[in-house]
Amino acid sequence: MSINRMFRLAAIVLTLLMIPFIGMQFSSSITWSTADFVLAAIILFGAGMIYEVMRTVLKTPRQRMITGLGVFVMVVVIWVELAVGVFGTPFAGS
User: Fold this and answer.
1) How far apart are CA 94 and CA 24, in angstroms?
2) What is the 3-state secondary structure (H, E, C) of the chain?
3) CA 93 → CA 14, 37, 67, 83, 90, distances in Å?
4) Which whole number is the average pLDDT over 54-77?
5) pLDDT attached to residue 94
C-alpha cells in the first residue's frame, strides 16, 4: 500500500469522525468521550487497512466486492455491539 493511499484513508476516517464531533456541538444527546473517538478511529482505520491489503492481494472484482462486504459487515457488527450491546458481551455500551 502506498503512502498516498494511507493518507487518503486517514483523511476519510477523520472526515467520518467529524460527523459525531460536529453533532456534539449542536445536540446534547450525542456524548462521545475521547476514548470513543479513539476507538472509532482504530476500528475504521483498521477496517480500511484490512480492505486495502486484501484489495491488492485479490485479483477479481467479485472477490474484492465480497471482501469489502465482509469488512463492512464486520465493522457494523462491532460498532453495534459497542453502541448498544446486541450480543451482551462485557464490551457492550449499555
Assistant:
1) 19
2) CCHHHHHHHHHHHHHHHHHHHHHHHHCCCCCCCHHHHHHHHHHHHHHHHHHHHHHHHCCCHHHHHHHHHHHHHHHHHHHHHHHHCCCCCCCCCC
3) 22, 14, 28, 5, 9
4) 94
5) 58
- Give the C-alpha separation, 27 to 69, whole Å: 32
- Other C-beta atoms within 10 Å of 61: how many? 8
Three-state DSSP at 69 gives helix
Q: Which amino acid is at 74?
A: M
Cell 482504530 belongs to which residue? 42
Mind listing the pLDDT tens digit for each residue in 9-42? Answer: 999 999 999 999 999 999 998 889 999 999 999 9
Domain boundaries of the chain, sorted by first residue: 3-84
pLDDT value of position 93 = 65
C-alpha cell at 75: 465493522
